[in-house]
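Dear H.,

Thanks for agreeing to be a second pair of eyes. The structure we're designing against is below in token form, covering all 269 positions.
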């Protein structure tokens, strides 16, 4: 792993989390195939022609946003060394692949761009129901962000507060489901908003199926008590909203139940 603000390493962290259920399923398959097998996880955008055996699952992978499959340890080692080439390959992590994993666990190599990491996955079917519930929440977060995109793009184009020279940006987008009671904290409990504006925001959210609001970072952090969220999500929130973004981009915090996601969205010309 590189420094914590390496964008590819962050994507990789996200993949590990989002693909958790699929990784356990692949680990169960790999364990059944034998001790020479492990699991490969990558961003489907990265699948390269030298890996023709992976292209079969590409369409499905592009839909879910990750590619995961059982792969031999020898192939994982090779994939890891190829991927790590331009950056310094994480030799220690790759050497770990060749050590026998603990009973019930399987080696996994994750790769995004030139960043790689190895982890152990427990091939434990009992974890699947919980992980599947988490995956459903992730899908809902994706859906909300997709619905929010047109409004985010419009705001990035039209609202001068959305794009400033300040880094990290002191304004960010909050995205919520229209049924989320947390909307009240941003709409109703805001004396600075006129009754007219409040009504418009609520009506717009219902119509679009998503609530999108540009708010100061400090307000968002104050109105989203961290204990409402999964600890790993709050850690990510606090890390990422203080990171710089490319010009013409803003942070988006998408929230659903006890999950949240922080995304960098760039203005499309
Ligand atoms: Zn990295």
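And this is the sequence the design step returned. I haven't edited it by hand at all.
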């Amino acid at each position: 792993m590189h420094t914590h603000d390496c964008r590819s390493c962050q994507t990789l962290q996200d993949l590990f989390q989002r693909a958790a259920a699929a990784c356990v399923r692949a680990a169960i398959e790999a364990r059944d195939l034998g001790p020479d097998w492990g699991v490969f996880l990558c961003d489907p955008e990265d699948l390269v022609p030298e890996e023709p055996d992976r292209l079969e699952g590409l369409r499905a992978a592009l839909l879910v946003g990750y590619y995961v499959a059982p792969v031999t340890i020898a192939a994982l080692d090779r994939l890891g060394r190829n991927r790590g080439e331009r950056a310094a390959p994480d030799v220690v992590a790759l050497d770990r692949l060749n050590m026998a994993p603990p009973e019930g666990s399987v080696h996994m190599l994750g790769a995004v761009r030139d960043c790689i990491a190895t982890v152990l996955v427990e091939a434990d079917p009992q974890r699947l129901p919980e992980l599947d519930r988490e995956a459903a929440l992730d899908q809902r977060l994706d859906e909300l962000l997709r619905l929010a995109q047109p409004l985010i793009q419009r705001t990035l184009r039209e609202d001068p507060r959305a794009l400033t020279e300040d880094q990290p940006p002191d304004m960010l987008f909050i995205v919520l489901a229209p049924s989320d009671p947390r909307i009240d904290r941003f709409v109703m409990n805001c004396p600075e908003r006129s009754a007219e504006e409040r009504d418009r925001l609520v009506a717009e959210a219902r119509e679009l199926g998503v609530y999108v609001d540009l708010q100061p970072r400090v307000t968002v952090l104050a109105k989203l008590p961290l204990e409402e969220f999964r600890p790993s999500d709050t850690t990510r929130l606090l890390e990422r909203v203080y990171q710089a973004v490319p010009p013409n981009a803003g942070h988006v915090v998408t929230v659903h139940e006890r999950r949240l996601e922080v995304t960098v969205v760039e203005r499309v010309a």
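Two observations from my side: Residues 2, 6, 8-9, 115 surround zinc ion (CB under 6 Å). The beta strands are 37-42, 67-72, 105-112, 115-122, 171-176, 211-216, 249-256, 259-266.

Warmly,
E.
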